[in-house]
Design a protein that fits this description.
Layout: H1 22-28, H2 34-37, H3 42-58, H4 60-78, H5 97-100, H6 102-124, H7 129-145, H8 156-164, H9 168-183, E1 207-212, E2 216-221, E3 227-228, E4 233-236, H10 254-260, E5 265-270, H11 282-300, E6 305-310, H12 312-327, E7 332-338, H13 357-370, E8 372-373, H14 375-385, H15 387-400, H16 409-414, E9 420-421, H17 422-434, E10 443-444, E11 447-448, E12 458-463, H18 471-475, E13 485-490, H19 496-499, E14 508-512, H20 519-524, E15 527-530, H21 533-543, E16 549-550, E17 564-565
Parallel strand pairs: 4-5, 4-6, 6-7, 7-12, 12-13
Antiparallel strand pairs: 1-2, 1-17, 2-5, 3-16, 8-9, 10-11, 13-14, 14-15
Length: 574
């Protein structure tokens, strides 16, 4: 490998984006990871504020010095003698009024000075470790909430539009607000709920449901090549959101890319559970995957499948693979794990900062009493942790500016939340908090899951800007397997890794099969390539099943006849 091909360790990019840029909005929309966020402890956030107050009281000098500096800065600002400016990369302040209008220029400078004062105090404080990280998080949240652009008076663009439209933007903003109050749990919609129809505008790749039980549907997709790989692929998505992230639109469909390269595709569509399904747990879902593989083997008359798990679906896919390994069922050809964490460590993501043993046990009691973790619970957990990206940016565009919710397939999908059965959520919480899968202590379907006994090839993919499953945490999965393992890192976030357009000229990825314990060391030896990582993955799949056979003339089989067209019934259930 030449030095030119070796990668520089990629760093996550953090920047503000304009609400009108659809692709940029989609880029920052990441969905949610079931295992990482559901144990967030609201009391830990309150405790973080308590730590700030306690530290400020214990060290009044630090507070006094930061306050004195802020007072001096504000004085210079309002006398017009300050060179403090708002962050040039922060699109919230891109309106010319923030530079040209005397009042707004001073308001922006004052906000910047206040933000700097918070950072200055934190640097002077004695807070360390996770207490400092928590304080930093809640202070940044305060900055997001209290930004002047979140008010009419402090938003020159909103006031200008109010004048230009003769008040119509205010009326439309109020209509948006009341619509969200009725249909989106009172939160600003990230997308137009009526812009797309599932099965027509999204999730429209031709296929058929060939198996259905109470838990899931198995969908077989129509081949588009005369010759196909003998080894079919089973796509397993998270139990949160709908499975069609892999089939958003023609130019964003992972399924179509696979089919175009002759790889037979099957997908699991999980049922949206009700309270009566509260006892569904990881055993239930792992058994559902194994049952689906059994069906696929009979339909295709093939002994093995490529098993792929995405996000929380990867956790369950890995558990199912471990069960089959323990049973000596040699049904898996390769295992692909995308943007998921099998080896959990505390505090390595923003979600983990506020997950404690207390919060995990309290959440388990609460969800068992309710029987279900609702769509609103899922959304609020995510919104609380990504307040600017998930709430405030859309608050400004939908309500202050009166803009209609945007039309974008990824954003539409991101609003299509599902529920989680109580016992499954409890299993996710335990996985995240106690790390039993990585410790080889996890029992699923009566079998101890030991991933180190898996000898077949494994493909692990992560995204550099993924805030939900950080890439270094995903990388640790490579240390759990004994077979040939490859790690791929792409310059995308959690959901864009799967749904980005293939013609995105900014895409690049790094590949390595040299897998030391240190992820930074691994990336230093990785080869960098331009373009979508999916091209490399499909080539990898074909390398492990290079032969070709005639494509099937019909979907399903005599024993498993077609039950209906893709995307099936369960994806439409509310």
């Amino acid at each position: 490998m030449t030095d030119e091909n070796k990668a520089k360790a990629p760093q996550p990019a953090k920047k503000r984006v304009a609400a009108g840029d659809l692709e940029a909005i989609a880029d920052r929309t990441e969905g949610i990871a079931a295992s990482g966020a559901f144990g967030v402890d609201a009391r830990s956030m309150v405790d973080a504020w308590g730590s700030i107050v306690e530290e400020a009281s214990a060290q009044p000098r630090a507070l006094l010095e930061s306050g004195r500096k802020l007072g001096a800065d504000l004085g210079r600002i309002w006398f017009g003698e300050s060179d403090i400016t708002t962050d040039a990369s922060d699109s919230r302040f891109k309106d010319e009024a923030w530079q040209d209008h005397p009042f707004y220029r001073r308001v922006g400078q004052s906000y910047a000075a206040w933000s700097q004062a918070l950072d200055d105090w934190l640097d002077r404080s004695g807070l360390q470790g996770i207490d400092r990280d928590r304080a930093n998080f809640v202070m940044n949240t305060a900055k997001d909430l209290l930004a002047p652009v979140n008010t009419f008076a402090g938003n020159p663009a909103a006031l200008r539009k109010l004048r230009e439209t003769g008040g119509r933007s205010l009326v439309q903003g109020m209509k948006n607000f009341f619509d969200d109050l009725q249909h989106n749990h009172g939160y600003p919609a990230v997308a137009d709920r009526k812009a797309f129809v599932v099965g027509k505008d999204v999730a429209m790749t031709p296929g058929a449901v060939v198996y259905r039980n109470e838990l899931l549907e198995v969908i077989q997709y129509q081949p588009v090549t005369e010759q196909v790989s003998p080894v079919p692929l089973l796509y397993v998505f998270s139990q949160v959101n709908r499975f069609y992230l892999g089939d958003l639109a023609d130019d964003r469909s992972l399924f179509q890319r696979l089919l175009n390269d002759g790889i037979p595709v099957f997908a699991i569509s999980w049922r949206n559970p009700q309270k009566e399904h509260s006892n569904w747990n990881i055993d239930t879902y792992a058994d559902g995957i194994i049952d689906s593989i059994r069906v696929i083997r009979k339909i295709t008359k093939q002994k093995k499948v490529h098993l792929m798990g995405l996000c929380a679906g990867g956790l369950v896919a890995a558990a199912a693979a471990g069960v089959m390994q323990a049973r000596e069922d040699k049904w898996v050809k390769t295992l692909s794990l995308f943007v998921n964490v099998l080896d959990s460590r505390p505090g390595e993501s923003e979600f983990g900062l506020f997950v404690t043993e207390r919060s995990v046990e309290a959440q388990k009691v609460a969800v068992r009493n309710r029987g279900i973790f609702s769509e609103r619970d899922v959304f609020e957990m995510f919104a609380m942790l990504r307040i600017e990206d998930s709430v405030m940016s859309f608050f400004r565009s939908n309500y202050l500016l009166g803009d209609p919710p945007v039309k974008h397939p990824l954003l539409f999908w991101s609003m299509d939340y599902t529920r989680i059965p109580a016992e499954m959520q409890c299993d996710f919480l335990d996985l995240g908090q106690y790390n039993r899968l990585a410790k080889k202590e996890m029992i699923v379907l009566g079998k101890r899951v030991n991933l180190s006994k898996i000898k077949y090839p494994v493909y692990v993919m992560a995204g550099t800007t993924d805030h939900i499953t950080p890439w270094k945490a995903c990388y640790r999965s490579t240390q759990l397997f004994s077979g040939d393992t490859v790690f791929v890192l792409t310059n995308q976030n959690h959901t864009q890794t799967i749904s980005s357009r293939i013609d995105n000229r900014h895409l690049k990825y790094w590949v390595t099969d040299e897998l030391p314990e240190d992820p930074d060391a691994a990336i230093k030896s990785a080869a960098e390539s331009a373009g979508p990582w999916t091209k490399h993955w499909i080539e990898w799949l074909n390398d492990h099943a290079a032969e070709r056979i005639d494509a099937p003339r019909r979907l399903g089989s005599k024993k498993f006849p077609v039950l209906g067209d893709a995307p099936g019934e369960y994806v439409l259930e509310k």
